[in-house]
Amino acid sequence: MSLKTVSIKIKRQSGPDQPVRWEDFSIPYKEKMNVISLLMEIQKHPVNAKGEETTPVVWECNCLEEVCGACTMIINGKARQACSALVDQLEQPITLEPLSKFPLVRDLMVDRSVMFENLKKVKAWIPIDGTYDLGAGPRMAQKVQEASYPISRCMTCGCCMEGCPNVNRKSKFIGPAALAQVSLFNAHPTGKMNREERLDAIMGVGGITDCGNAQNCVKVCPKQVPLIRTIARLNRDTTIHGIKRWLER
């Protein structure tokens, strides 16, 4: 039996207004461990590296296969998913911190509700008139499908928000994820019916003009969503839309 252990350093906070503390843990090593499995070991046996009993660490997870985005946290200084962060590929001690751009709930758990509220602001849906069968919708061209699919991979994990310097407490910027969904729905044959509403939404406060083109969002996105190209396209679309609005006065 191997005596190898994994060293973890976790930033902990009992609540939003509670003092911050760092706590070290030492977990017996097993092959193919990920950060979630480390946290589950602490949950089963909440004793820190000093041998002191403590409270289980609070975090979120769901799918455990990098699809839901719930387990996003800062691991060794980088925003990523805990389920796909393999222990064998991480430097020790492994440092775990909550995302800093969202309200803290407790320990590693944050409230990402703002991301879903931003989707409401940009009308990231296709409205249906009634509940009756509308029949088959229009076909989407293969070229449009190929351009839209990478954007549809977004799992609202919050990595792009964490990496973006324009997302902060002083800014109302809705962030790259919501902007990308505008492009996705506006490219859809049915979604185009509400294209102008979405463009109007991102031309307001906190919209596309608040993007500083830092390009950090692309670097941290775990799904390789082409955010920079998508935002550039939206810049063109909103400029043309604004000129048309001005000419129609």
TrEMBL record:
Essential cofactor(s): [4Fe-4S] cluster; [3Fe-4S] cluster; [2Fe-2S] cluster
Domain called Succinate dehydogenase/fumarate reductase N-terminal: residue spans: 8-117
Keyword set includes Oxidoreductase: yes
Entries under Gene3D superfamilies matching the protein: 3.10.20.30, Alpha-helical ferredoxin
Residue ranges annotated for the 4Fe-4S ferredoxin-type domain, each copy included: 151-225
GO BP terms: respiratory electron transport chain; tricarboxylic acid cycle
Top-level division of the source organism's lineage: Bacteria
Keywords noted in UniProt: 2Fe-2S, 3Fe-4S, 4Fe-4S, Iron, Iron-sulfur, Metal-binding, Oxidoreductase, Tricarboxylic acid cycle
EC number in record: 1.3.5.1
Molecular functions (GO terms): 2 iron, 2 sulfur cluster binding; 3 iron, 4 sulfur cluster binding; 4 iron, 4 sulfur cluster binding; electron transfer activity; metal ion binding; succinate dehydrogenase (quinone) activity
PANTHER family found in the cross-reference section: SUCCINATE DEHYDROGENASE [UBIQUINONE] IRON-SULFUR SUBUNIT, MITOCHONDRIAL, SUCCINATE DEHYDROGENASE IRON-SULFUR PROTEIN
Family: Belongs to the succinate dehydrogenase/fumarate reductase iron-sulfur protein family.
Protein name (database record): succinate dehydrogenase
Species for this entry: Desulforamulus ruminis (strain ATCC 23193 / DSM 2154 / NCIMB 8452 / DL)
